[in-house]
Amino acid sequence: xxxxxxxxxxxxxxxxxxxxxxxxxxxxxxxxxxxxxxxxxxxxxxxxxxxxxxxxxxxxxxxxxxxxxxxxxxxxxxxxxxxxxxxxxxxxxxxxxxxxxxxxxxxxxxxxxxxxxxxxxxxxxxxxxxxxxxxxxxxxxxxxxxxxxxxxxxxxxxxxxxxxxxxxxxxxxxxxxxxxxxxxxxxxxxxxxxxxxxxxxxxxxxxxxxx
Length: 211
Description:
The protein is of the alpha+beta class. The protein has a single domain, classed as 3-Layer(aba) Sandwich (Glutaredoxin), CATH 3.40.30. It is built from 5 helices and 10 strands. The strands form 2 sheets. It has an 8-stranded mixed sheet with strand order 1-10-9-4-5-6-2-3, sandwiched between helices. A two-stranded antiparallel ribbon has the order 7-8. Helix 2 links the parallel strand 4 (69-75) and strand 5 (106-112). It is globular, with a radius of gyration of 17 Å.
């Protein structure tokens, strides 16, 4: 109970921090940006090199993010509700964007915050349920924690009630990474397919004009 309360407090603080961060950047720039909720511009956070593995056991790092847009979601395969709902929704987002001739290609990335149980094989089985195109990532606890810190993701592993039986409190937000490896967008729950698509299209079109 205490851990859950602490998790809520930290998430609220993080959300407030993102709001302050966004507001500060907006007022510091003369550029007119679109009024898109969660758009972290003009000073996005630059993702630094990292190393994890995908569901096939192959290395996955910063170079795998560059060149295309990425929707990144942090969760765990034993998650009873938030994760399956969000991944199902993101799979719909990817499918609909693929049907738009003008839309940029995107990849959907699921990052496990429970690497103790979520082996590459476990992650592979899990993500394949939602889409053959979905990328699943795992690694050591240190590797996952390092990537999560870069994006400000908060998660807490609760005490085990039985061997291997525990839950993980984690953020329900979806993070948008640009083809340049920049954390550019934050999509907070509750999520809607059309809302995410509209916000993404607006953000991606704006970024094109800045290049």
